[in-house]
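Before we proceed, please read the two lines closing this message. Let me know whether the structure tokens fit the sequence:

…
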Amino acid sequence: MLARKGLLPDGFLLTRLAEDQNQPNRSRSRSQRARFITKSGSCNVAHKNIREQGRFLQDVFTTMVDLKWQHSLLIFTSAFLCSWMLFAMIWWLLAFAHGDLEPRNPGDESGPIPCVTAIHSFTSAFLFSIEVQVTIGFGGRMVTEECPLAITVLIIQNILGLIINAVMLGCVFMKTAQANRRAETLIFSRNAVIAPRNGRPTFMFRVGDLRKSMIISATVQLQVIRRTVTAEGEVIPVCQLDIQVENPLRSNGIFLVSPLIVSHTMERGSPLYELSAQSLASEDLEIIVILEGVVETTGITMQARTSYTPEEILWGRRFVSIITEEEGRYCVDYSKFGNTVPVRMPSLSAKELDQTRGVQEGGSDVHLQGWGLVRAGRGGFRRGGRACDSAASQPWYAQSEKPDKELEQKGQKKKVQLEVIGRQIDEDGLGDMSD
């Protein structure tokens, strides 16, 4: 379909199909890896061996809202049919006990007054039950003043019918106005990326809203779910760790007026601090994204969820720009929403990069100090006409400057008195002449 729309060439698709056929085991192993949150946002957790099933009946309304549509409609239809059938039986018994079911002449009006007119069988009693509960009132059947019990049954059936209608309307409204319905127009990028940003490895993904109505007080929360082992040897299969979202305001709030790239800097204290390109494929972790906010038009709190597994995290890539300015307004091209481009990035983790930078910075400081103090040419240290290599021997003033290295590292400059140096040279010259 993508090739038909001209987004991808046919050769690329054919090549990918051939690669997928040649690597069946790899795709099968990836598909078998379980995840807690699916890409659509539903929880992939099965609850088994629940012995106290009666707890669900204590909250009937929430249980009915959580049911699927076909099950809810089946329950509503069964409730109406059972109530109609129950009261039809009651109306038939009232008519039978009052003698209204005995055959009478159509023109004879001198007989006893029935409790309910025009009830001659169970079918007519069932039709009258429907007319009472849904307040149709065709006019052929009605309750008379002869039986007070019939008036009481009429009141009870009306109240029960109103309760069933209220529950049904409430369940239908709540099912159609659930928080995950608004989340259908909130989209996340299919893949997350790790790319350098401001000199630091950064985990990034893109989120966007297809509707013009905004999400008020939108917040993004990131969590890492991984298997950990404590110092005592306890295995925690599901360990949830929060990830700080990169935001100058030090909060997780976002202004989702256009697609945004949500980022997390992989620095010290981050759960992804030791993640590298080699260890990414073998890591058993899942990064869960939770977006919460209030719908502007309805005022209902909504929540959108997705997750990223190691197979869906691309190392050394970044998202392309999709926002352009045209005719005085900003335009968003959603056809490039998940497109990425490669960038130059080392395969080391953030921890390894910090260690490498620390060694280089420490070595460069020593080298610069030596360069500024003893470097005289390309050959190494020079004293008079003899050159010595820095790795093989030490300069003539190396021992005298050892106590002053700490002062130099603290930023204090060493003061050298030229008069002392000149006096020492004169004394050395006089000693040679005397010899």
Remarks:
- Residues 1-31, 363-425 have pLDDT under 50 and may be disordered.
- The first strand starts at residue 186 and ends at 188.
- Residues 405 and 411 are 10 Å apart (CA to CA).
